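JOB MANIFEST
job_type = single_chain_structure
chain_count = 1
residues = 671
[input]
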Amino acid sequence: MKQRLLVSIIIILAVILSYFSYVYRSSTNAFTQQMSDAKEYRTDDYRIAIAFEDGVPAVGNNTAILQLRDAKGNAVSEAKIRGQAEMAAMGSMPSMRAPVIFNEISPGFYTAEFDLAMRGEWPLKLQISKDNTSADLSFDMATGRSSLTISGGGVSMASEMPVNDNQATFPSTPGVDLSSNKQGFYTVGKYLIKVALLENAKLRQGDNPLIITVQDSQNNALNNIDIRLLVTQSMTNPGAEDTPAQDNAALVTLLPSTDGRYRGTIVLPQAGDYDFAIDVSSELLGHGDLILTGQTGSSELHAATATPAGISHYTCSMHTSVRAAAPGSCPICGMDLVPVSKQQTQSGVISIDARRRQLIGVKTATAEYRELSKSITAVGRIAYDQHSASEINLKFDTWIGELKADFIGARVERGQVLFTVYSPELLSAQQEYLETRGRLASRGSDDSLLKAARSRLSLWNISSADIRALEQRGRPIEFLPIYAEKNGVVVNKSIVSGSYAKAGSTLLQLADLSTVWVEAEVYEADLSLLEKGMSATVNMRNLSEREYPAKIDYIYPSVNPLTRTTRIRLVLDNSDGELRPDMYAQVHFNKELGKRLWVPEEGVMIAGETRVVFVDLGSEGKIKPVLVNTGQRTKGWIEITEGLSGGEQVITSGNFLIAAEAKLKTGIAQW
């Protein structure tokens, strides 16, 4: 019987193991099949391939699959892979982030779910770490676009083909101001630019690795310059006019190599005609643009044109983060790109004529030094003065006899009986004292034993009057009275007549309400303006708007993490008893700020943590955006601590439209 049971268990375990082995192989084969067409990227320590479960990122929930191998091609398990996709801020809309956290599902395979809130560009950053190795990678990712383009931290494996002497170069078209020399370089301003394919001599659908070589006019290699390549599908392609804008243009990541070479991979989604816009710039040689045209199956690219003289780049009116070297459509919203001049980019100045100023309602004000004060209003409540609070407790176990102060709020006077107590220990101590006094009466009141017996009663808080009454009575007092030591109000009690109380327990709490505290909550941003001893006015709205003068008595050292406020304590006279604990109060402070530089608050544009002011230069309608640092804000004015000078004219009305113009025309860093 036992052998049959053992055989059955072994068979069941074998079936379970076979099932899980099948599931594991199936999932691994499925992921391997799904990753077979994914691009692979390389870092110093890892090889990474990324694919999406639905083929392309889309609005809503997405699942990404990542295969991770080491430099030798072995699967890497138990790695920590975290990332974030972020859509850049656009105008008043803040940036949006989507966390991307990968979990391992089989050796070397990881998946992550993430949510994209809207269509557009979502650059993806990943951090991979295991043991002592790590890698940080950046990818260009967009909804509706299947491929990822690596933009930092690694290179595409497809772009690492060896360079040979049979690379195709592309001559220029006759009649164009650009020409190629014998080595295949185009003269673009102060630059020489050469484009060469790596893998084959013809453009094709799919990946086309290439190298762009950039030299100066003396044939010196130019390394570490700003260079961009934008590939746009020609609108003459069949169906291209119906292609979404974000699929019609792609920015190619170019990685610097040596000898002025920049490597990248052009991905052509289908056969047809394409435009290739190359944009180069450096501080020494300035800006240069080259636009080439070509088609799949051809070994030639034709130099079409350069960006018109004086034009820095093209951008979108709605999405100013988009920058292109040639006219076209915005990859986010599809609107036509508009030109931005080099002068506007370099100076940051825009021009708005008098007619447009009138249409958008431009108004100005002068940045000026003036004396201002700041009013601070805080909400507080009345509290009893903790310095005057006292507790009534006893040093012996006892039973409560008659309770005189028998409710919370009862007023008591100093020397008034609060309650009486009965205690066997107390009776014993009284009897002991009477017997000692009787035996040692002949020795006088200064006898040490007699003093010790009297002292024992005093230490138990028995008053001198009660000790004298005990001596006159000649027998113990069963219910001894307990007296109030000061005037006050009962604010808490834990006894009733007949209740039992242990030694040390709190029986009553008294507070003197002749003076009270006001505890007000002040925002941490205003704390720097307040100091101990500063005058204030306390307004009691429930007492016919009565006002009380006060001074700051104490500023508490901590901040409430939920409300971001700090308590301020003030002391008020309450001899008439009108102020009661927990009443609401308003506290008003007034701080003289002295002479400082101020502008109307309408003149300051707030963009995240930056502050921008538009200065009216007065000449030909020129307006310049200026990054400023601000200080205090009061009475419709904002203090300027850095960035402006007194007397400058700032825009106070219509600046939202001017801000849009500035973003469009200048691309200033603060936006």
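[summary]
The chain has a mean pLDDT of 78.
The two ends are 82 Å apart (CA to CA).
exit_status = 0
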